[in-house]
Amino acid sequence: MRHLLLALMIAGIVAVSPLDAAPAAAETEADHPEARPYDAESEAMAEVTVALARAALFRKRVLLVMGANWCHDSRGLAGWFETPRFAQMLARDYELVFVDIGHPQRGEGRNLDIARRFGIEEITGTPTVLVLSPLGALLNPETARTWNDAASRSEDDIFAYFAEFEPEPQ
What we know:
Blueprint: H1 2-10, H2 18-29, H3 44-58, E1 61-67, H4 72-82, H5 84-93, E2 94-100, E3 102-103, E4 108-109, H6 112-117, E5 128-132, H7 155-163
Parallel strand pairs: 1-2
Antiparallel strand pairs: 1-5, 3-4
């Protein structure tokens, strides 16, 4: 079927947009779900402030994922978060915020002031994942910048990491 479609495309009989070709590439590229939740136009600092207020009100942690839609590992981690297993745990224990950080490694970063607000002076890889208390204390300073291999991690390892952070005591 692919050969027939390719022959028809070359002959100019069938036109295929890049969007039509994307699903086939995605199927072979990853053994995990992917999502694209990073919005370059969002009011990221306001979203973080609201998440902290909600976390205090509902006695949760804040999970701040600083990544980008261009990043395979950022999309992979976000994809796991959309699965029912993760969605249930995250909804119960966290206020989740995705922050688009552009390309900080190339000097084209954005929203980097948010990372600095919580003690991360430099983004060295994407995603950078901050687990915060409702008061804004960074709970994972040693591991926040270690997620640039998120797409290679197993579902169980990722789940166990985020499940270990207990919600705020009542």
